[in-house]
Amino acid sequence: MMAALGQFTFALNSLAFQELRRSTSWRHASNSRVGARPARQFVGKGDETISLTGLQVPEFMGDRNVLNRLRDMADKGAAYALVNGAGESFGAWVIENIDETGSIFVREGVARRVEFTINITRVDDGLADPAGGTDGGDDWGDWWSGDDWDWWA
């Protein structure tokens, strides 16, 4: 495992990133002064972002649907704990966007090569989804819903 975002693991058999770019900022309020440089006051931490880029070749390694699972996590709007493969915790993060570029297509229109960029932004740790992005198991809700309970009535 390279890293985990909630219950999603970045690994060779799922989705491996080639580059991790991390940016951290701090906020300093500015107040103009006559005849001097502006006065600055530290007002707290700013944004912290991580950009993960990589290449996926599903015929060789990885899961073709893994980016869709990340999109489903992003659709929830929840924050997820980020931990690297060595067990270091980076706090809670939300998925801001996912860029995907497919190339080298087979005749059915499926890309054999997919380049991706995933941008995540840190939020307050208390916002992390305690379920880690899971829905309770292996589609346990599918048998429960719908018309499968006709025999009950």
If you had to describe this structure to a student in words, what would you say it looks like?
The protein is mainly beta and 153 residues long. The protein has a single domain (3-29, 41-129), classed as Elongation Factor Tu (Ef-tu), domain 3 (Beta Barrel). It is 7% helix and 50% strand. It is built from 1 helix and 7 strands. It has one helix at 66-76; strands at residues 3-5, 8-10, 19-33, 36-56, 80-84, 89-105, 111-123. Residues 136-153 have low confidence and may be disordered.
CATH topology: Elongation Factor Tu (Ef-tu), domain 3
Principal-axes shape call: elongated
Strand order of the largest sheet: 2-1-5-6-7-4-3
CATH architecture: Beta Barrel
In DSSP terms, counting alpha (H) and pi (I) runs of 4 or more, how many helices? 1
Question: At the first level of CATH, what is the class?
Answer: Mainly Beta
